[in-house]
Write a structure and sequence with these properties.
Layout lengths: L1 H16 L4 H10 L6 H10 L3 H9 L4 H8 L14 H5 L30 H14 L3 H15 L9
Helix pairs in contact: 1-2, 1-5, 7-8
């Protein structure tokens, strides 16, 4: 558990090193295979003395492991390893776009919009199982389902009564 936390903190330091903030930093951490939200990332940064302290240590030329050793003296800092991929975490091969040089998912070829939908828990769970069975991300499966459903809808016709 401590090793997992340290590896997450290392990814946070790496996000700071790349100048990423907020949602961009969270996406970077997600691309590394770790679940985290902005609030959790801020808590980790505060435990390290704040973003400014981490930036100062980076500007001094410190490595991620050295920064962790400075921020958590006496704590056992594990050797740097490769973060797990989504395929390792969920038992299937990772699919999707290749990562950019900073580990972020490359932008899709089309414009996207974020959508929040309330649905029954059992439907959400069923979508998760179906996505896992098909080796896809849940969001990709939802987009596919909506695309197929929309293509089957008849074109609306303006009628005059």
């Amino acid at each position: 558990m401590v090793k997992q936390t340290r590896m997450k903190q290392e990814r946070i330091i790496e996000a700071v090193r790349h100048g990423l903030e907020g949602e961009a930093a969270v996406e970077f951490i997600h691309a590394s295979g770790y679940a985290m939200n902005v609030q959790a990332m801020l808590r980790h940064l505060q435990s390290m003395g704040g973003r400014r302290r981490v930036q100062d240590l980076i500007s001094m030329g410190r490595t991620n492991a050295e920064i962790l050793a400075i921020c958590f003296p006496g704590a056992e800092v594990p050797a740097t390893g490769v973060p797990p991929s989504q395929g390792v975490l969920f038992g299937h091969e990772e699919q999707g776009e290749p990562a950019s040089e900073y580990g972020l998912i490359s932008a899709p070829l089309f414009e996207t919009t974020k959508l929040t939908v309330s649905m029954p828990s059992d439907l959400y769970e069923a979508l998760s199982f179906a996505a896992k069975a098909e080796g896809k991300r849940r969001n990709d499966l939802i987009v596919e389902i909506l695309t197929v459903a929309m293509s089957r809808m008849p074109a609306s016709r303006d009628r005059e009564d």
